[in-house]
Amino acid sequence: QVQLQESGPGLVKPSQTLSLTCTVSGGSINTGDYFWSWIRQPAGKGLEWIGRVYTAGSTNYNPFLRSRVTMSVDTSKNQFSLKLTSVTAADTAVYYCAGWSYYYMDVWGKGTTVTVSS
Amino acid sequence: QSALTQPRSVSGSPGQSVTISCTGTSTDVGGYNFVSWYQHHPGKAPKLIIYDVNKRPSGVPTRFSGSKSGNTASLTISGLQAGDEAVYHCSSYAGSYSLVFGGGTKVTVL
User: Does A111 sit within 8 Å of B99, measured CB to CB?
Assistant: First the structure.
């Protein structure tokens, strides 16, 4: 079974870019079984889908975040990444990476907390 | 994209059944049979327990069941066990290659 692990800075300053990486283990990121996705959960709130990227490079983003989000895949490192620009306190959340299969998230990482603060 | 509506919490005694609702609109829950449910224990990765409204992945006990009527989907946990205490999230396909989630429901085993 594929396993996912998020990594990246836990603290980002306002107006800067949040950058996270998800490492895929137990299988190849090129498996073709998944669209690789990012989801986040602000404290006390529900999950929010951020977007997804396929190994061929195609992407789909949440319309509310589309202008600030970029996702990419590095097949040589078995990793995919998230960049979120111009962050504010509202972007403080636990960020999860996940594998999207058909119409559901089949596998998830444990999440990483990102705080936006000066 | 509006979040799906779930109750903040539900509770039940061991052995009892609890049902969690997940209400959306005709553009998500009501428009597609692609509702999924996730069990999330603190500090762990969320786990898929129901997909496509009522299908269980391999290894998920039959105590977990899903259904849908109109714009509302439901997750029922029968024979409640201590290990079922967790947060449960619903999700639905919302068209245009997007997903929408609910606010999450904390299940407490009394």
Answer: no
> Please, are residues B33 and B21 in contact by the beta-carbon 8 Å criterion?
no
- Collapsing DSSP to helix, strand or coil, A89 comes out as helix
- Our CA angle for A44, A79, B95, nearest 5°, is 55
Contact B103 A45 (CB under 8 A): yes
Q: What is the pLDDT along chain B (110 residues), one digit of tens a residue?
A: 458 999 999 999 999 999 999 999 999 999 999 999 999 999 999 999 999 999 999 999 999 999 999 999 999 999 999 999 999 999 999 999 999 999 999 999 99
Structure tokens given for B19: 């049902």
Residue reference for tokens 């129901």: B50
- The residue type of B77 is I
How many other CB atoms sit within 10 Å of the CB of residue A96? 25
Q: Could you report the per-residue pLDDT of A74-88, keeping only the tens digit for each?
A: 999 999 999 999 999
Which chain A residues are closer than 8 Å to B44 by Cβ? 110
